[in-house]
Each structure stands twice: as C-alpha cells, then as structure tokens.
Amino acid sequence: MLRVLVILIVSGFVVADPIKRSTVGRAACIPEYIVYTDEMTWDDAKAACESSSWTLAEIRSQAQRDALKAILPAENNNYWIGVNDVVGDNENYEYATGGSVIYTNWLNYEPNNHNGAAEDCVELRGKKGYGWNDTPCDRKKFPLCEF
Ligand SMILES: [Ca+2]
Ligand SMILES: [Ca+2]
Ligand SMILES: [Ca+2]
C-alpha cells in the first residue's frame, strides 16, 4: 500500500485535468506538488502519480523549479520527474505527457548516459541542489507528482 505525503499546497490554479493545460499556462503556474514515501522505478512512479490523477512533475520554468526547491524535504532524496529520452540519445528530452522540454536544469556534464548506460529517465539529485541528471529508468527513486 502506497503512502502519500502532501508536502505543499502553493497558490491556486488548480484545474480538473492538468494534461489539457496549454504549454504556456503550465509553465506560468505553480502546481501543487506531492511526493510519495516509497522509492520505485520511473514507470511505477508515473503510474503511481496517475493513479491519483496527478502526473509526474515536469518543471517547465525557473519559477516552478524555485518553488520546488523551497519546499522539498531536507533529506536530500532523489526524485523522478516526468522527463525522459526513451527515444533518441540525449538530443531530445520529452515530457511524460508529451512534447519536447521547454526548460531544463541539468547538472554539470549531464545528460551524459554515464559509462555508456541507457540513462533515459530524469531525476532531481537531492545532494546537488535538485539539479537534473539522466539515469537508468529501472533505478528506484521517490515519485514527485504535480497536480
Ligand atoms: Ca535515450
Ligand atoms: Ca540519456
Ligand atoms: Ca547521467
């Protein structure tokens, strides 16, 4: 049984179906963010968010990144976000809900397919200021959902 910890309710702009928000609207707003307390693969994390009608967080703007950084727990955990390059090889990262990324926050030397591995999914690295790292999708991280 998954347990959910609600870590934040930022300003409003709650809509019934986030997948139908326009790209511009989604970058401008600050969603509500929710983290699960169990680590799991990227696919399972995506499914966990969707099971509650949320999506994996996509972080479409500096404003969203700043809001998240201010409220993520102090444990320096690593979190899955809804960004991947399952198709291709670091040329084109896409959102889990579709479309190419419009904002990124890669750590130095990322994305790198480290040691030639298929690093197709993106995590926030807690010990590095929650910057982005591409890493294998079957690793277990905490799901970070948005609503
Ligand atoms: Ca890839
Ligand atoms: Ca990659
Ligand atoms: Ca990497």
What does this structure look like?
It contains three helices and eight strands. The chain has helices spanning 23-28, 42-51, 62-71, and strands spanning 4-6, 33-36, 55-56, 79-84, 94-95, 121-125, 131-135, 142-146. The chain has one domain (34-146): Mannose-Binding Protein A, subunit A (Mannose-Binding Protein A, Chain A, Roll), CATH 3.10.100. It starts with a strand and ends with a strand. The model is unreliable at 8-20 (pLDDT under 50). By secondary structure, the protein is an alpha+beta fold. The structure holds calcium ion (3 copies). One calcium ion (CA) binds at residues 110-112, 114, 119, 133-135. Keywords: Signal. InterPro entries: C-type_lectin-like, C-type_lectin-like/link_sf, C-type_lectin/snaclec_domain, CTDL_fold. Residues 33-146 form the C-type lectin domain. Residues 1-16 form the signal peptide.
* CATH homologous group name: Mannose-Binding Protein A, subunit A
Quaternary structure type: single chain
Low-confidence stretches: 8-20
CATH class: Alpha Beta
Output the number of helix runs.
3
Shape: globular
* Spatial gap, N to C terminus: 21 Å
The distinct ligands, each listed once, are: calcium ion
Secondary-structure blueprint of this entry?
Layout lengths: L3 E3 L16 H6 L4 E4 L5 H10 L3 E2 L5 H10 L7 E6 L9 E2 L25 E5 L5 E5 L6 E5 L1
Parallel strand pairs: 4-8
Antiparallel strand pairs: 1-2, 2-8, 3-8, 4-5, 4-6, 6-7
Quick summary:
With 147 residues, this protein is an alpha+beta fold. 18% of the residues lie in helices and 22% in strands. The protein starts with a strand and ends with a strand.
